[in-house]
Amino acid sequence: TAKKLYAVTWSNPTGATISVTANGNAISSGTPVVEGTSISVTVTASSGYRLNTVTIGGASQSGVNTNREESSTFSYTVNAATEISATAVKMYTVSWSQGAGTSLTCNTSGLQNGGWVDNGTTVTFTIKISGDYKDLKVTGANNTSGDTYSVTVNGANVSVSSSATKNCLVEGTMIMMADGTQKAVENIVAGDKVMVFNHETGKYEAGTIWFNDHADDPAILHNVINLEFANGSKARIAYEHAYFDLDLMQYVFIREDNMNEFIGHRFVTSTYDGTEIVQGETTLVKAYITEEVVKVYGPITEYHFNLISDDMLSMPSFNFEARGMVNIFEYDADLKYNEEKMQADIETYGLFTYEEFAEYMTYEDYCKAPIAYFKVAIGKGNLTWAQIEMTLQYLAENEF
After folding, report:
1. Cα separations (Å) of 102 from 17, 160, 173, 203, 278?
2. In what order do the strands lie in the sheet with 25-27?
3. What is the pTM of this model?
């Protein structure tokens, strides 16, 4: 009995090619073969794709190799007109990198850095800031909740990165010493005598550097905040730094997200004329960002915290939790605490005593900060005990 001829047909799907042999010879789509002929079907994923499904004669084939850019071969006996089809999935790479001061972990099981995933896959990460770094920035993924970030692959390779910065003065900033001379911030060390403003007396006086935060840290990439003032002076800071604002009559912490709000505000200047410190004012006229690899420093003075940087009365922020430790009392026009209101605050809220801090520090260290007044700050709602504990922990961990 004569055997029938049946056509074997297919078309290449997006992302894969199909090749067929009959009796060891390659055939093209539409070629008729004799009934009972065994054909070999090979489906190969294209670059950047993986096979998903293969169907021969209406039957879905098992054992498809779904690895990227791999092929699968199947044998099939033709007993009717046979159609071959396949599907493939586009894949993209997901890579990630963590910058200084951050930790970045991919939560997607089995995915290695630079690995491939299907288009449409959602990849999640846990990204945290560490140590005394500030201002976490994440590119390539969106925050979904807490420390969790995610990105859905959508037609392109994905790259996720994290970075953070350290706050304060950029290298090259000049600090006024107690004798009126200037020293670069990178050369400031604990014990140095610098000029400070005593808000309890309303006078300039010699102060002592408690520590110069970040002095041993390497240069990293920062968004440097450049401040320009009407008198021609300039200041360069990273993340944030406080200056005394005469329009608000308090120290204000200038950051990238609020710097433009202070344009037009008047700030306190402090210059040495060879005999004494001359206090004046200048207006912030311009603020802009430059991206630079620089070292930053955070010199903190004992008790007062403030100092004169680039001839401006300023105050570093050595710890985010410490913002409530400044501007505790209202200031008069001469920058001295208003004595009447200060006394009223103390009578209302009370003062801390060393005994309440004895388990945390020595009496000598207790005297290096206006800790007694922190009770007023707590009473006013500007500070919490938890924030004080975090700051004390920070100081202990850094051995200040």
Report:
1. 44, 13, 26, 42, 43
2. 25-27, 16-22, 38-45, 71-77
3. 0.67
Smallest Cα–Cα separation from 346: which of 368, 385, 383, 374? Answer: 374
Contact 348, 266 (CB under 8 A): no
Q: Which of 2, 6, 315 is nearest to 167 (CA)?
A: 315
Give CA–CA dist 62/44, Å, rounded.
15
Per-residue model confidence as pLDDT tens digits over 335-390? 999 999 999 999 999 999 999 999 888 999 999 999 999 999 999 999 888 788 87
Amino acid at 7: A
Evaluated on CA atoms 354, 355, 357, 359, the torsion sign reads: positive
Residues making up the chain, counted from first to last: 400
Which H or E element spans position 267? strand 266-272
Cα distance between residue 94 and residue 68, in whole Å: 14
In the numeric block, the tokens 């005598």 are attached to 193
Measured distance CA(295)–CA(222) in Å, rounded: 9
Residue 400 has pLDDT above 90, yes or no: no
Please tell me what DSSP assigns to residue 265: -
Longest CA span, the chain: 122
Residues contacting residue 149 through CB under 8 Å, at least 6 positions apart: 124, 125, 126, 127, 138, 141, 142, 143, 160
Q: Are 60 and 54 in contact (CB under 8 A)?
A: yes
Dig out the tokens for 211 from the structure: 């520590």
Beta bridge partners of 120: none
HSE (side-chain half, CA atoms, 13 Å) at 336: 9
Neighbours of 170 (CB within 10 A): 22
Mean of the pLDDT values across residues 242-266?
96
SS3 288: strand
The pLDDT, as a whole number, for residue 199 is: 97
